[in-house]
Specification:
The longest helix is centred in the N-terminal third of the chain and has 23 residues, at 2-24. The protein has one domain. The N and C termini lie far apart (81 Å). By secondary structure, the chain is an alpha+beta fold. The protein has helices at residues 2-24, 37-45, 78-87, 115-118, 254-268, and strands at 58-61, 124-128, 132-137, 143-147, 164-170, 173-179, 199-208, 211-219, 228-229, 234-238. Helix content is 22%, strand content 22%. Strand 8 and strand 9 form a beta hairpin.
């Protein structure tokens, strides 16, 4: 009887060990840094599961920064140089007022697009419907609609924090064109500006079940003398389990940000309390 019990226990233990990867494998910032080179190599060589390259649904996370920053910034026009000089958080009349300068982040203003896509290393989620793709950003829970029902960008669209975006499929590439951005946001934390005439093209590809890649081109002739083009592909990793992984609640609360500015950020920047 005891031998039968031990045998059953061993079989149960073996079954659990063999099945563990099916529920213990997690992708993302919590485990990525702990993989050994051998584990990473084996994972890359493993057969990829079947998937639909037109289905971008899920929570995506990437290690990289804004891909635009890998390329030299195009030369400014005279208007662009003036806007940049006013924006720079570490120079000019806005220095240390507060310590972040006039960075919209310090006031909890919407970061706009594309900055919010890369802010604080946060994830974003794609939710697809028959007529649009909804893009939700973990940082401040900003939301962007990408219309895929064949409509055009309205000619008289009111300027928006996240612009007006339409998308269409070019083979297995989602091409997103957008405009209608207000000029209150920065393209990055360095204060690079844009005008309300800025247009943008993004190209998303989904080469395997776990990977999303993106390139971006910004055209704003009022501010830059030539288009600003991605230096490289930005790569995002699907967070598993798909359809279950949740975005963290990460709101920027004005009252809390004001308290933090007054008691922490400003004193660190040498700003004395009023």
């Amino acid at each position: 009887m005891r031998g039968r019990f031990v045998s059953s226990l061993l079989l149960l233990t073996a079954a659990l060990l063999l099945s563990a990867p099916s529920f213990a494998q997690v992708y993302g910032p919590s485990t990525e840094g702990h993989r050994s080179p051998q584990t990473t190599k084996l994972a890359a060589a493993a057969p990829k599961p079947a998937y639909d390259p037109h289905d971008l649904t899920g929570v995506w996370w990437g290690r990289g920064n804004n891909p635009l920053m890998g390329n030299p910034v195009p030369s400014f026009t005279a208007e662009g140089q003036k806007m940049f000089a006013l924006n720079r958080p570490t120079g000019g009349p806005n220095a240390l007022v507060p310590a972040l300068g006039n960075d919209p982040m310090g006031r909890c203003d919407p970061l706009g697009y594309p900055r919010t896509m890369y802010s604080n290393g946060r994830s974003f989620e794609f939710i697809q419907t028959p007529y649009k793709i909804v893009q939700i950003f973990e940082w401040t829970r900003g939301m962007r609609d990408i219309w895929t029902d064949g409509r055009k960008i309205p000619e008289d669209v009111d300027p928006r924090w996240y612009g007006y975006a339409v998308g269409k499929w070019d083979g297995n590439t989602l091409v997103v064109n957008s405009s209608g951005y207000n000029d209150k946001t920065w393209l990055d934390g360095a204060g690079h500006p844009h005008s309300e005439d800025m247009t943008m093209e993004e190209r998303y590809t989904h080469p395997d079940a776990m990977t999303l890649q993106e390139t971006m081109t910004i055209n704003d002739p009022k501010i830059y003398t030539k288009p600003w083009v991605s230096a490289k592909l930005q790569t995002w990793q699907l967070q598993l389990p798909k359809g279950v992984t949740e975005l963290e609640e990460a709101y920027c609360v004005p009252s809390e940000e004001e308290y933090f500015n007054e008691h922490t950020r400003n004193p660190a920047g040498g700003v004395k309390a009023q």
